[in-house]
Amino acid sequence: MPHIDRRQALKLLAALGATGLASACSIGTGDDSADDDGLVSDVPVRIGLIVPQTGGYKPIGDEMLNGFQLFLDNNQRRFGGRPVDLVIADEGETPQSGLAAVESLLSQQVLALTGVANSAVMLAIRDRVEEARVPLIGSNASPRNLQSVVYIWRTSYVADEAGLALGAYLAREISDDGEVAIVAADQPAGRDLVQGFREGFGTGDERISAPVIWADSTPNPGRDTFTEPIEEVVDRDPEAVYCFFTGTAAVEFVRQLRDAGYDGPIYGPGFLTEGNVVDQLGDEASGIITALNYSADLDNSANLRFASGYRKRYGASPTTYAMASYDAAHVLDKAIRTAGPGVTAQELNLALGRIGQIDSPRGPWQFNQPRTPQQKWYLREVLRDGPVLSNVLITELATLG
Q: Could you read off the pLDDT of 240-254 as tens digits, one per residue?
């Protein structure tokens, strides 16, 4: 029998899983949509999707849109047996553009909102969503201080959790006299992820006692954007670097850090290497270790269906952004079915609290009291998996939420 590498084996299993289940139910459902033998009502439900379609966060927005559309297409574009009228609004990259997107969707009488990539946008729209009493199933941004909300649910995480999970791990890995340099984009998500990391590592630990190095938070940095923070990192000569950047900023930071002569280990929340970051960095990404609530090579039936369907449609491995948006669609499907015919926004919000466990590509999870997932977190490392570099699952880290 010819040798089959790990990636080929996963793709083969995914294809077999999708084939075997397709005759019994829709590919992306997990468990619920198999009960739909026909329309519950022919009156569409209007859903508003808020994702960046312009600006530096557009790659994340594209992933979020892809995941949501995949669930819809695999379920006859219905939620709870009713046709879906999906309205998409551009979040842009500022709180002002995000709030304008929400206002546009509310004016179109949507039953629910979903999406939101940027933590600064989520904080800006919080009061408007609560005032409108229209549920928002956020599928990415989830700031730590977004508390005591009634109409805002999140299928992603709380923004400090990746730092918490990785901090506890790294505290065991660093030598007793070593130093970890902490570098992050100066924005709400960056501050949450630094705080979570420090708490997980041990706030009073001398190995992280040096001041945090804050960097420009622009999503479109240039070749000299990170010169000053990187010079400070190199001057400290740390045993390891913990950093938070995403997308183009992650590519530029890692590249500039390596060009400056730092050749030590790099750790970060999984966003540091999500999307096409690894492809752009190539071998410069090799060995980066991250913590995230999802890995495309997780071995469960829901992920085999999701990942194989995503690769077939989009020609790439799915990210946590796509997965959480796919789950947001799954949540809406279950909640609309639970609420029954004639559902209102307020009835849908009540139904969201009764949907129970979600059979997700990340593994089963359910909403906790603060309306965020109780879920597992995983350790990943950028390694060569067959002919390409990818985020390879190493182990489970913790269950948080």
A: 999 999 999 999 999
CATH fold of 6-157+300-367, please? Rossmann fold (3.40.50)
- Residues 159-204 pLDDT 10s: 999 999 999 999 999 999 999 999 999 999 999 999 999 999 999 9
CB 153 within 8 Å of CB 367: yes
Span between the terminal Cα atoms of the chain, in Å: 45
CA–CA gap between residue 144 and residue 146 (Å, rounded): 6
* Cα angle 237, 241, 242; round to 5: 155
Instruction: Report pLDDT digits (tens) over 286-339.
Output: 999 999 999 999 999 999 999 999 999 999 999 999 999 999 999 999 999 999
Query: Under CATH, which number does the domain 161-292+380-400 receive?
Result: 3.40.50.2300
Q: What is the pTM of this model?
A: 0.87
